[in-house]
Write a structure and sequence with these properties.
Helix content: 40-55%
Radius of gyration: 13 Å
Structural class: alpha/beta
Shape: globular
Order of helices and strands: EHEHEHEEH
Distance between the termini: 14 Å
Strand order of the largest sheet: 3-2-1-4-5
């Protein structure tokens, strides 16, 4: 599972989601990978609009707009140095491998990292 903690207020979050994530998803299409998007402090209307506008959908893509209580818990576990966007990786057993995973604009490095995890 590749996690992406983002917010509608975060310019870098939206840039990565729109410009770089589609190529990563295409490179890993059909593989045993889930792209899990966790929205932070985002209204439902903005959340739905960004997903629709950016075409951030597909069989390997899951979105959650986190309620405040869940935001705190998820951020304690996954947020890297308190920065947005923040990317993490979980292995096949659900163990957190890193909360500092390569960013989508580092496509080659990210794909290699995920492929290595898939081999384990």
């Amino acid at each position: 599972v590749y996690t992406d903690i983002w917010g509608s207020w975060c310019t870098l979050c939206k840039r990565d989601m729109k410009l770089f994530a589609p190529a990563v998803k295409e490179a890993l299409k059909g593989r045993d990978v889930v792209f899990l998007y966790l929205a932070n402090n985002t209204s439902d209307a903005s959340w739905k609009q960004i997903i629709k506008e950016y075409g951030c959908v597909g069989p390997q893509t899951v979105h959650y707009n986190l309620p405040a209580e869940q935001q705190e818990a998820v951020e304690r576990l996954l947020l890297h140095q308190g920065t947005y966007p923040s990317y993490g990786l979980f292995d096949k057993n659900g163990k957190l491998v890193t909360k500092n995973a390569p960013r989508p604009y580092e496509q080659d490095r990210l794909v290699r990292t995920i492929e290595e995890l898939l081999k384990k």
